[in-house]
Amino acid sequence: MEALPTPPSAGYDISTAAKDAIEAAHNTQQLAIIQAVLAAQQLTQQQSPTPVPVPVQRSSGGAGKWIAIGAGSSVFLLAFALSAVAVAISAVSLTVCVLVLRAVWQDVRKGH
Question: Are 107 and 75 found together in one domain?
Answer without folding.
Answer: yes
